[in-house]
Specification:
Radius of gyration: 18 Å
Shape: globular
Distance between the termini: 28 Å
Number of domains: 1
CATH topology: Four Helix Bundle (Hemerythrin (Met), subunit A)
Number of helices: 10
Protein name: CDP-alcohol phosphatidyltransferase family protein
Family: Belongs to the CDP-alcohol phosphatidyltransferase class-I family.
InterPro entries: CDP-OH_P_trans (IPR000462), CDP-OH_PTrfase_TM_dom (IPR043130), CDP_ALCOHOL_P_TRANSF_CS (IPR048254)
CATH class: Mainly Alpha
Keywords: Membrane, Transferase, Transmembrane, Transmembrane helix
CATH architecture: Up-down Bundle
Organism: Gelidibacter gilvus
Helix content: over 70%
Order of helices and strands: HHHHHHHHHH
Number of strands: 0
Structural class: mainly alpha
């Protein structure tokens, strides 16, 4: 099941794992496995990728990065096919993502010639890129009755859905705000009026989807196996400039 109605679907370059994710989710539909189990599985895959980077097994690192990306799509798909959406799963997914991203970038810094400041700024840039993509995507999903567990503005702790505990939501939302709050505020300051746009053209969303975590992990995996480890962090630092380009295009055209 798509997060958007058919007429508003776009080619999401970061979502290449979705077809496989749907197969896995459908296979798990009538089992005891929950979306939370899948989230834990992608955390393990991400940690294995970090380990492989550190010991120089770059092909294996690439495999686990791509696997992590696929499993990252499975948990949401499984929640939809089981009809068990939850804020617990939504925030656990996000918190796991940013912590794994930090570990991945630290591991790359340790095995490359990049300076620490480049690593820090590249990581901040990576998160800013992902925040812009998620911001525009959530606006579309909310506008056209797609996935509703994500909100355009994450200001207040949501009320727990049926089947989840409020204290779990409270804790994970607090972690989410701690880790993502500054990025959300930054994007809102840069383009707070985006929610007033009637829609975003498919071509625009496809371009912005290069900021999606799946595509970012694909770039990292590709550069690792091509022996370009020293370029990874500078690339993401430089590509952050496209945040301002996409926002300028959005403001000028829609």
């Amino acid at each position: 099941m798509s997060k958007l109605p058919k007429e508003h679907n776009f080619l999401d370059l970061s979502d290449y794992g979705r077809p496989i994710a749907r197969i896995i989710a459908n296979a798990l539909k009538n089992t005891i496995f929950t979306p939370i189990h899948v989230t834990l599985a992608f955390i393990i895959s991400g940690l294995l990728a970090v380990y492989c980077v550190l010991v120089g097994h770059y092909w294996l690192a690439a495999f686990f990065l791509i696997l992590k990306s696929i499993l990252d799509a499975v948990d949401g798909e499984l929640a939809r096919v089981k009809e068990t959406p939850s804020y617990t799963g939504r925030y656990l997914d996000s918190v796991a993502d940013i912590l794994l991203n930090a570990l991945i970038f630290i591991s790359i810094w340790l095995i490359s010639n990049s300076q620490l400041w480049v690593c820090v700024l590249a990581f901040l840039g990576l998160q800013l890129q992902g925040t812009l993509y998620n911001y525009y995507h959530v606006i579309l999903r909310n506008k056209f009755d797609g996935d509703t567990t994500s909100r355009v503005f994450e200001n207040k702790t949501p009320k727990a859905m049926e089947g989840e505990k409020q204290n779990h939501v409270n804790i994970l939302f607090g972690l989410y705000k701690l880790l993502y709050g500054a990025f959300d505020k930054c994007i809102y300051l840069l383009d707070g009026n985006a929610k007033k746009a009637k829609t975003f053209p498919n071509w625009f969303m496809t371009a912005v989807s290069t900021f999606g975590l799946g595509f970012q992990l694909l770039i990292i995996a590709t550069m690792l196996v091509l022996g370009l480890k020293d370029i990874i962090l500078p690339f993401f630092l430089a590509y952050t400039l496209m945040v301002f380009v996409f926002i300028a295009i959005r403001k000028a055209l829609f």
